[in-house]
Each structure stands twice: as C-alpha cells, then as structure tokens.
Q: What sequence folds into this?
C-alpha cells in the first residue's frame, strides 16, 4: 500500500507540474520558465522511475526466497 501511495503522490506532482507548464504557455511565459519546468518534469519522472524500479526489485526478491 505504501508503494501505491508513493507512486500516486509522484504522479500528482507530475500533473501539477504539467498544469504549471500549460499555464506558462497560455500566459506567454518565457522560454527560461518553460525550460525550468521541463527540467522539473524530467526530475520527477526520474524519481518515479526510481520508485517503480525499487519496488519491482523488492517484489522479485520475495519469490526468490
């Protein structure tokens, strides 16, 4: 359950950052702002990947015992 909550939290953060980028685009934000938001998205995706890959390893290790 903790894993599911962690993933859902990270997905919520991704959605918020995507909304932020949409607002920046619609309001004529600068290229620098857009680039910062893209970097934030990349970091959040990487954190989500790390969470998922850790859980898969833990899940697989349960059956190797």
A:
């Amino acid at each position: 359950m903790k894993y599911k909550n962690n993933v859902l939290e990270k997905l919520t953060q991704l959605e918020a950052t995507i909304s932020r980028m949409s607002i920046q685009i619609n309001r004529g934000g600068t290229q620098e702002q857009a680039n910062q938001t893209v970097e934030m998205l990349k970091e959040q995706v990487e954190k989500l990947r790390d969470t998922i890959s850790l859980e898969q390893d833990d899940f697989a290790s349960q059956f190797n015992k």
User: Anything to note?
Assistant: The mean pLDDT is 86.
